């Protein structure tokens, strides 16, 4: 629903801005401007329809996603400046970090 509440007003605002810019440009050039009210109304309906369609697509995709699981609360039992336990973690010469289980040899050695 949030996608629609964002896309519909934004598309309507874009359509209204287009009409105002057109009127300003025509007035600045001294051109006569005759645009029936029905045409402006049709343009407004079209921009809202496009905004609705543009909002439905991401809303449907988002509705199909699995909601994320919350992170566990932080462990406040250790002081903030306490060193992390890095036992079991070794730097790989290739630059990645891998986990080593204590008591097990790597690569069959």
From TrEMBL:
Segments traversing the membrane: 7-27, 39-57
Keywords (A to Z) from UniProt: Membrane, Transmembrane, Transmembrane helix
Region feature (Disordered): 62-109
Domain of life: Bacteria
Name this polypeptide is given: Uncharacterized protein
Organism: Streptomyces brasiliensis
